[in-house]
């Protein structure tokens, strides 16, 4: 028996025991589905977030007050809370940094806001932000309709707003929102611009659920506590980023009156640091997902070995006939190994396909907007299929090869 004949024999055996083969292949496919699905979803979400970081610019960084509104505890001790970054400090930083980089100042107003217009209202999950003339450009948001804030509106704090696409769909379906009025946080705002759709990001609304106000307008809104402002600094020359980070640290320490030897009362976060954090998190998720998938595949390999042992027992007489006709122990071993590998590959192909679809489905629900094809994990899955087939089929194949032909022919 040559290799091709052994493969044909494997398929003949599979067809003669179709139900058992299908059930065994399904066990293997579940294991591969878990492995490829988990890893695909992780990589798809990572790619989506990397694209988001790239759109924000790799040559930018954000400055926020350290520990502001921090309620987390570390080892039973609450983290130190520093004073909020004020509008005066933000303006001083912007003025002192000069023209070497572009600075955008923003303030978070509300993250659970309901907007109303024309008797309709949005879900109470819209985000209201206040920003200066550079905010949209630095954040990478584009206008689909209308215009940005004028200098006069920014200076006097006019009641104007730029809204996201989801707000338009809820309040102004089949019409332009520009020139219409919307009510939020007890005030009535004239819509002067509409943001281009951005899609969701990790379950959030991105720019689609955003209502942007002029910075001075946000500062005038009634609130329970003082606003904390954020600064985003960007440069058109990536080579300047290390220099700008040093400059920003020195200026902010001076603006915030941090004494010599005292820790920074602010934190600087660049897109590079976010990418590193994401890599660390995705690495831990891969390890966890790999452990879960390994346990599933271990169960699948044990089930396959059991099925192959049953197959050897049922075909003992057939093995005796083949040996009597001249088949060697190597050929018998090869026959059963190929049969185990074929079952694994059939089940694995189904599991890999379902894993790719399932992983992208999970990523889509969480917020990834693109379809990701994990060629590497598909290749790894195929290698695992063959490996599981070899490991699970080795013992049954060895047992079949060691059978005595005379005793096998007598077997009933």
Q: What Rg is obtained from the alpha carbons, in whole angstroms?
A: 32 Å
Structural class: alpha+beta
> How many distinct helices?
13
Beta-strand percentage?
15-25%
Flag low-confidence runs: 70-76
Verbal overview:
- It is a single chain.
- With 412 residues, the chain is α+β, with helices and mostly antiparallel strands.
- It has two domains: 3-53 and 277-410, no CATH class; 83-264, no CATH class.
- It has 13 helices and 14 strands.
- The chain has helices at 3-16, 18-56, 87-97, 135-139, 151-156, 165-171, 215-220, 241-256, 271-314, 316-324, 329-366, 375-401, 405-410; strands at residues 60-65, 73-74, 77-78, 102-113, 116-117, 120-121, 126-131, 143-146, 160-163, 181-184, 187-195, 210-214, 229-234, 266-270.
- Strands 1, 4, 7, 8, 9, 10, 11, 12, 13 and 14 form a ten-stranded mixed β-sheet that branches.
- It is elongated and about 100 Å long.
- Mean pLDDT is 80; it is low at 70-76.
- The chain crosses the membrane at residues 21-42, 291-313, 340-366, 372-391.
- Residues 21-220 form the MacB-like periplasmic core domain.
- It is a multi-pass membrane protein.
- Residues 291-404 form the ABC3 transporter permease C-terminal domain.
Provide key terms for this protein.
single chain; 412 residues; alpha+beta; ten-stranded mixed beta sheet; two-stranded antiparallel ribbon; 55% helix
Outline:
This protein has 412 residues and is of the alpha+beta class.
Protein topology:
Elements: H1 3-16, H2 18-56, E1 60-65, E2 73-74, E3 77-78, H3 87-97, E4 102-113, E5 116-117, E6 120-121, E7 126-131, H4 135-139, E8 143-146, H5 151-156, E9 160-163, H6 165-171, E10 181-184, E11 187-195, E12 210-214, H7 215-220, E13 229-234, H8 241-256, E14 266-270, H9 271-314, H10 316-324, H11 329-366, H12 375-401, H13 405-410
Parallel strand pairs: 7-12, 9-11
Antiparallel strand pairs: 1-13, 1-14, 2-3, 4-7, 4-13, 5-6, 8-11, 9-12, 10-11
